[in-house]
Each structure stands twice: as C-alpha cells, then as structure tokens.
Design brief:
It contains 9 helices and 4 strands, in the order αββααααβααβαα. It is mainly alpha-helical. It has one domain. A two-stranded antiparallel sheet has the order 1-2. Strands 3-4 form a two-stranded parallel sheet. A hairpin with a 5-residue loop joins strand 1 and strand 2. Helix 2 packs across helix 3. The longest helix has 25 residues. It is globular and about 45 Å long. About 30% of the residues are buried.
C-alpha cells in the first residue's frame, strides 16, 4: 500500500515538486535537497530527504544565534524548533507552511525506509526526548504524516509527541491510517500544520 500510494503521489505531484525545485534554486546558493540522518524502523539510521528551506550556512547561523542568546538556546534545547527561525529562506517559509518541503520523503517510502503514515522520523540527537518510549518508536517505520501532524504539530511538546506515537503504535490499523491521511489533506491545503 505504501509503495502504491507513494508512486501515485509522485505521478500526481511532480509539477508541484518541479515548482518547489525552482523556488529553492531562486532562494540562494546551496543544494535543492537537504538530507538528515534519522532513526528508522528497528533504530536503523537512514537519510531523510526534504527540499532545502534554510540558508546554505544554517548550521553556523544556528550556533551563533544560540551562543548569543541564552533564552533562545533554552527554547531550542526544549523544542528543537524556533518560532521565528532566521535561517529559513523566504520561499522556505512557503514550502514549510504547506508541507511541500516534505514531498521528497516519497522517495524514502519507495526505498522502504519510511511509510506514508507513522511517527515523524526522529533526528539522531533527539532520541533522549522519547526516553522509555524510544523502543516503541523504533517498532514502526517513520511516516510522512502521522498523529503529530494532524493534532497540532508545532504546538505539541516532545513529550506529547511521544504519547501520540505510543498511542498510534498501540492502535495501529489500516482504517486509522486512512483517517490520518484524510485529516492530513485539509491541514496541508489550509497551511495550518506548520
């Protein structure tokens, strides 16, 4: 089912991905795609693909920002996100708002590293946020969409995210996955899930 859905999405959404590629190219120097090491099924590490939405020197800018402000550093340590992240490009904000930056993860699904629905793939330095729930996270393939994306996304703490993933693992079914996919559509189209 994952492979079929991913192939259908790639067939239908290639024009959107082409426009996204052009927007990233216009957003400054740097590659079109960004990949980051993430935990997958059974804790295996894989490269998770996204359209690049940040400036090419984003890592350096983040270090400088965190060193200059203890308050911002505390927010980053807690949430791993910044509300008004200065590293994000002009077009990157648009791509993130409508989750277009996530579309290259369809290739991760085709490669068997991700599922359409599942917990969000954890970065390799985020496992400690899940604490005792990390083995439950590793029992599933990470997904492009999941309970976190349709339940408040960036307003949810890592603890809340772990609880959602544990509940999803406990009650996982095809009907639940279909419901999450259906709930994802308005979140993406209205740009309310970023």
């Amino acid at each position: 089912m994952d492979l079929t859905l991913a192939m259908l999405c790639l067939l239908v959404l290639w024009p959107v991905m082409l426009v996204a590629t052009i927007l990233v190219l216009f957003s400054g120097s740097g590659p079109v795609f960004y990949s980051q090491r993430r935990f997958g099924h059974d804790g295996k590490i894989f490269r998770c693909f996204k359209f690049r939405t940040m400036q090419a020197d984003a890592d350096r800018r983040l270090r400088e920002l965190l060193e200059s402000s203890p308050a911002i550093s505390a927010i980053w340590q807690r949430d791993r996100k910044l509300l008004d992240d200065p590293r994000i490009t002009y077009f990157g904000r648009f791509l993130r708002r409508y989750s277009i930056d996530e579309l290259p993860q369809l290739f991760n699904v085709v490669r068997g590293e991700m599922s359409i629905v599942g917990p969000r793939p954890l970065a390799t330095d985020e496992a400690h946020f899940y604490a005792d729930a990390f083995p439950i996270y590793c029992s599933l393939k990470p997904g492009i969409t999941g309970p976190w994306q349709v339940s408040g996304r960036n307003q949810i703490s890592f603890e809340g995210r772990a609880q959602l993933d544990c509940e999803y693992a406990r009650t996982k079914s095809v009907s639940q996955d279909v419901l999450i996919i259906l709930r994802t559509i308005p979140v993406v189209l209205l740009g309310t899930g970023y």
